[in-house]
Amino acid sequence: PPADLDCDVLVLGGGPGGYSAAFRSADLGRRTIIVERHATLGGVCLNVGCIPSKALLHVTAAMQEAQTLAHAGIAFAAPTIDLDRLRAHKAAVVGKLTDGLAGMAKGRKVEVVRGVGRFIDAHALEVALHGGGRRVIRFAQAIIAAGSQAARLPFLPDDPRIVDSTGALALPQIPGRMLVIGGGIIGLEMATVYSALGARITVVELGGELMPGADRDLVKVWEKKNGKRFERILLNTGVSAANAQASGIEVTFSSGEKGEKVEKAEFDLVLVAVGRTPNGKLIGAESAGVNVDARGFIAVDAALRTNIPHIFAIGDVVGQPMLAHKAVHEAHVAAAVAAGGKDAFDPLQIPGVAYTDPEIAWTGKTETQCRAEGIAYGKAVFPWAASGRAIANGRDEGFTKLLFDEKTHRLIGGGIVGTHAGDIIGEICLAIEMGADASDIGRTIHPHPTLGESIGLAAEVFEGVCTDLP
Ligand code: FAD
């Protein structure tokens, strides 16, 4: 058998958390190894998450925008869709980024061992190598970045027409009727893609609201725009059974207090987007003495240490929000602390974005949170119906909302609904982290006419400054 490998820092998992931790560790002079079971680095985000979904959302948004230009005197024929080329485009986008990561690992002399890793004790991991065989890696410290996978509904039959987000991103077909189970960000982003490609979409959500986590006023704007675009949106409704028939998947919905209201409908494709399960139980953590909770999450302190002080954990496997940017920032802290530095993961805000149409972005405190936590806050809203740029874009249905501490007028949260909301929320993130108050933001000269200036204008609204710059 091949000789044991030896390193300072072993990183388990090559997603955004894992590669960021490994690259930072190597930059800090540590001998670093990443163990990744898949052929490429990048994890869920690059391979089957953030990036391929945005490649598809960009294409479908452009398609739809082109169709809305008729009123401006520019008409296009109905689009023709070549699914093979669309898939190839998406694969090329992903490939460019994963190739880049491979180059960055090489440049830093980070060794990537391909295979499935399991801890065998607190200083060793055994890898079932991709090409067969096993190899033991001994480490001084480890960073667990094993990520998460799509949660399953165990009663659904095994059928190629029932897919998770990975299956949906593979674009197996353009279904006539598609069911999206789960009204969260991932479900609604995929619903946006498939509806633009021509599928008639039903969304079913067990809870009473879509996009939980975001304030209702933001989501309402999305609902108004998409109410007609989607065939049906069923809230407070569960899927209780599904049967694979030759003609489609027959799904049973149940609603009502005791699930007594039952309805059946048939779909050509069913996407299950009911959340994600952490991979903590699949890595032999117990052999290293690392505690994993019943759901598969690994608890960490602010320095990202597990209960075993030389083993850290980051990213989706440590908890919500399961987002790539959270994983990356945790990674940098874990790598710094492992190298002997002093650091902590203690952000004032972590943004969330639904890249739907329109986009919904929020960060810091939401109004719902402020009310629940009894925080005295003031609010300012700038409606995009008063934004010159939004009107010029033909998309003035959005708004920008800022939440301030009532006493200090410091920014504590914000939300934006509208096109490109995800691209402009970054300023709110920075303002919260820098302790900016309403006057700082309102007096900052923003470029005109932009969607981003709605942030400065909302702050002016809060300050009671009358503005005549739409
Ligand atoms: P992962 O990316 O899950 O990586 C973990 C890696 O570890 C995987 O490559 C896995 O193969 C490997 N691994 C696990 N166990 C082992 C083992 N035992 N041996 C070897 N290798 C192992 N987030 C955003 O911020 N923005 C978005 O727009 C966004 N869009 C998304 C869209 C979809 C459809 C999905 C599913 C997710 C999306 N996310 C998005 C979430 C984002 O992908 C995750 O938060 C992020 O990938 C988490 O990074 P991670 O490093 O913790 O784990």
Automatic annotation (TrEMBL):
<keyword id="KW-0274">FAD</keyword>
<dbReference type="GO" id="GO:0006103">
    <property type="term" value="P:2-oxoglutarate metabolic process"/>
</dbReference>
<keyword id="KW-0450">Lipoyl</keyword>
<keyword id="KW-0676">Redox-active center</keyword>
<comment type="similarity">
    <text>Belongs to the class-I pyridine nucleotide-disulfide oxidoreductase family.</text>
</comment>
<keyword id="KW-0285">Flavoprotein</keyword>
<dbReference type="GO" id="GO:0004148">
    <property type="term" value="F:dihydrolipoyl dehydrogenase (NADH) activity"/>
</dbReference>
<keyword id="KW-0520">NAD</keyword>
<keyword id="KW-1015">Disulfide bond</keyword>
<keyword id="KW-0560">Oxidoreductase</keyword>
<dbReference type="GO" id="GO:0050660">
    <property type="term" value="F:flavin adenine dinucleotide binding"/>
</dbReference>
<protein>
    <recommendedName>
        <fullName>Dihydrolipoyl dehydrogenase</fullName>
        <ecNumber>1.8.1.4</ecNumber>
    </recommendedName>
</protein>
